[in-house]
Amino acid sequence: MPHAGPVNAASSSASASNSPQDNRYDPTALEQRWRARWKDLGLDITETDATKPGFFALSMFPYPSGTLHMGHVRNYVITDVIARVQRMRGDSVLHPMGWDAFGLPAENAAIERNIDPGEWTDRNIDQMRDQLDRLGLSIDWDREQATCHSDYYRWTQWLFLELFDGGLAYRKNATVNWDPVDQTVLANEQVDAEGRSWRSGALVEQRQLNQWFLRITDYAEALLNDLDKLKGWPERVRTMQANWIGRSEGAEITFQVEGANQESITVFTTRPDTLSGASYVVLAPEHRLVPTLTIEKQHSSVDQFRKRVARLSTIERTSDDRPKQGVATGACVTNPLNGERLPVWIADYVLADYGTGAVMGVPAHDQRDIQFAKANGLPVRQVIDAEGAKEAIEAGKAWTEDGTLINSGSFDGQPSTQGKAAITDHGETAGWASSKVTYRLRDWLISRQRYWGCPIPIIHCSTCGVVPVPQDDLPVELPRGIDLSGKGGSPLSQQTDWVNVSCPCCGSAAQRETDTMDTFMCSSWYFLRFADPHNTKQPFSKEAVNRWLPVKQYVGGIEHAILHLLYSRFFTKALRDRGLIDIDEPFERLLTQGMVQAVTYRNPTTGKYIATADVSDPNDPVDPITGDKLDVLFEKMSKSKYNGVDPAAVIDRYGADTARMFILFKAPPEKDLEWDDADVEGQFRFLQRLWRLVESASSTLTNLDKTDLPTDLTEQEADVRRALHLAIDAVSEDLDDEIQLNTAISELMKLSNTITASEPDRLSPAILQEAMSGLIRLLAPFAPHIAEEFWNRLGGSGSVHQQSWPSVDTSALIQDTISIVIQVKGKVRGSMQVPAEADKETLESMALSSNVAKKWLESAQPKRVIVVPGKLVNLVP
């Protein structure tokens, strides 16, 4: 980073630094002093004035890793600007912060460091809170929440019991990743690309365990339909959620198994029109009928195949790039439409918990099916005809478009779109088909066989069955100080003193549930707790939620577009139906900020990333070890790519206000931002120019109290007023619907340039006072520390952050004269000042008599004159 001008005054006295006699801009001491002052004043405490409109501004709360990165900075500064502006607009603003503190990373860190995960997490929280404080964020820390603290997860458990009581929480067998060496369940992220455990290196197996689920599928239709209500969400996010929910209309079709007593296989298909083209039926290897249907001579092959599939993850099994594999069971079914005999196979690409766990194979009209059929010698029959269909199928490409039915008996000749309904209706009459709507969305598996999570408040009794822990006994706290080895199953199951309890119903010996909850459970309702954080009787009151919710502006990464946002929407609707809240949706407006990227060096031969510090010549980067020429890329900041920039280092050198201004100015909020040291330096220089402007104005101004403006303004004064109110109008618009913070800062630069160019000592005090008051108030949300300093130096009363947002005086925008471009043959040759209300004839006359016309027309009369009032005059010789 090139050397800059700020003075490092870390050892200076904050109270003495930046006195009116000190002309240096020393951000370190200045920012420390004002943050301490704001804390003393309680400036960021949420107002309780119910007469003011409520505005809830919220950033997605972070996992407390202990280190702030530039992605955090961008997220939280964007939200802070919005919160500060709304306060100045007269709203009561709720701007809280918390910590998504449970989860596997903390447990793994505890194992590696031999430390209690709670102690490690609390230490990280303290460290990150201090880092956030340096940014000057207007957060109400009195409402802080940490999901790993029992005063929070008590209410997570309480809400689980509400869902359980409403029939939305249940247990069933589900497939998990099992490490046969460490004897423990693994998250998908702990299984590498080769299907091995990240810790033991063992090949991971798929096992069935009894797991807890939430019935999010009960809300699939509502979650899909209500996306239309979310007008303040990016279209991209709404589309992603709609695709994830995945509504499909089709039919369930029943195939009777040959020779079996009343056994049948039901499949779901969106293409009942292709039923006559089915050449096989395929089951998931885990399907309950597989052992029953497999004939004697196929037992060995089927068993071996099922064991191989058990080692594969769901991602591997459903990957489009992976060849589809399967084995015949030896059983057959009857096609109910044409009576044909179809073999029954099992295959890795069919999942037991998706749909019915069975599909019909129609190779000619499904690409996955045609690949499987050709690999296994199964017939391919075309039943939809259209131009090019036959040729495509013969070339191994399934025809999936519409067409005309063929080889379909009495349905031949029908358009395939009509054939769907006709064949379904026929099947419904015959009793082997029914219309069906299905969803790609699966019920939410919340069980985790981990220690560092919220305990599930359930007791298992051999007499009473599944028994909820009484609400008065909550929270069920995690035992602390236990040995965490990462081996041998759930750590909680090994804590016999904790596990063994009495049944709340009958008093007999019973055991606690040893699974903990998915961390998304904790983050799916935290925004509700912020509305009522000190309530000890319930997680939140309906009155508090009605005051603050839905969140007016939510800010976070696009990576949360599906799971967190979808789960939060489900939770909100479920709690509404339990009578706990009145709102339908949790977040009114959503801003998904782009990533922060930086220059990255990568060796194209080895694929390894090279640290910036190890590249001696950025203009000709080479690998310091191999000498290979390096690729230069812009990629997301990451430790593994050695391209991160420490926010603390930037703040130490330039101050938080410069860091904020850069992160906001460099790119629109929703776009990726490319880090550039020179641009950081540019923002610091802008703040220095403002510093000098305020120093110049301080010789004229003694206070910023509003005074009467003079009636007769000089041209210079009129220009300054016009620039001010144009900036107020533009910045205000940039902070409304389509938030564009980069262009707002650009407007501040233009305004400061106009004021500086006017020479403040030549302006009347009232005009200068209005201009500086407006400029500082517009600056305040973006650079809060230096704006507070400016306000104080120029005699403003109170804090700048307690002032009202400036309003536009439309009379200041009226211009007596305007600049008109003069073109000759369409090329700009000059301009002229004309009366703002000049008509076409006046503009033509003035243009013809101008020096521009004399020079370029050489006294000749133009053949044609084109006049665009308010913009230009084009002279055509």
Describe the protein:
The protein is of the alpha+beta class. 34% of the residues lie in helices and 19% in strands. Strands 8, 9, 10, 11, 12, 13 and 16 form a seven-stranded mixed beta sheet that branches. A four-stranded parallel beta sheet has the order 2-1-24-25, covered by helices on one side. Helix 18 (563-577) links the parallel strand 24 (553-557) and strand 25. Helix 3 crosses helix 4 (117-134), helix 20 (656-665) crosses helix 21 (677-698) and helix 24 runs antiparallel to helix 25. It starts with 26 loop residues before the first helix and ends with a strand. The model is unreliable at 1-21 (pLDDT under 50).
Short description:
With 877 residues, this protein is of the alpha+beta class.
